[in-house]
Structures are given as C-alpha cells and as structure tokens.
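As agreed, record copied across for absentees:
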Amino acid sequence: MPKSYPALKVRDFLWKHQLTGIIKETVQTSLDLNPTDASDFLSKLVDQGLIKESHRQNGYPFFDLTDCGVRLAYASAAKPIHRRTAERILSEFMERVNRVNATPEYLYRVDGVILFGSFLGAPPAALRAEGPVRPAWFARTPNRVTPPISRRAAGPRAKKVDQPG
C-alpha cells in the first residue's frame, strides 16, 4: 500500500475505479488531494504494482488496475472468526436446511451441502468470515431438473457435509 494511505482507503479507491480508469483528477476528487499529492499517490500505486499506465490522451496518463490491483480491490476486510462460531453458524444453517426439506410447499429441496474454504483445514484459532457452505438445490419432482453441485465444481478444498434430513 502506498505509505501514509490507509489500506482500506486504497482498496476502496481501487474498487470504485476498477472499471473506469484512473486519472490524476479522479484521485484529487475521490481522495480530496491537491495535484502534487494526487501525483504522489499515483506514483506509489504504480511502484506497488497496483496500477499501470494504459494510455495517454492529450498528454495526460490514464491508468488501469493490474492483476495485483484487482486482487486488492476485491480483498475482504472481514475479521477472522473462531472455529466455535463457525461451527455454530454451520449448525444453524443445517437446521434451516432441514426445515426447508421438511416443508412440502417449497418447490425445491436441498439434496446436499458442500463445505469448502478455510473451515476445512484451518487451525481452530481463527477462520475467515466468508461463508464456507454451498447448498445443492434440486427440484421437488421425480425428474431432477437441476444437477447436484459436484465436489469438482465446488473446488479442490471441498467436502460434503452430512446429508440433510
């Protein structure tokens, strides 16, 4: 991150301008910086490999995000949660899945739930707060319209949770 600029402020700036391209005036307006500080900010983003000059128009540089800049723009700032909390949330989710499956009025039922992400192999101390569960939905008809989510489609770090009741 550019020195003296908070990481979340940089991330939010990159997120906001990822599709529009970045010029010095954009930095001035978005971050309320004077022209010198805006140029310094852009130079630091280039030095960090977060943006690159894409082209010039009337002598003024236009910048686009690099792959690294895109990753930062999409980075989560979620705080870690403890395994106990994740297990409680998973248990509550599975209870809701079982309630859905027990309600015949719903057109779909959950045939399985796939667990993925850091919940599988992380030490008990901390887990990421992103949701580690993906349900596999099926139509409630004799002929299944929707195929199940396969382990391969869910990713290499996935495993099926106990079948919902």
The chain has two domains: 7-74, 83-160. The radius of gyration is 23 Å.
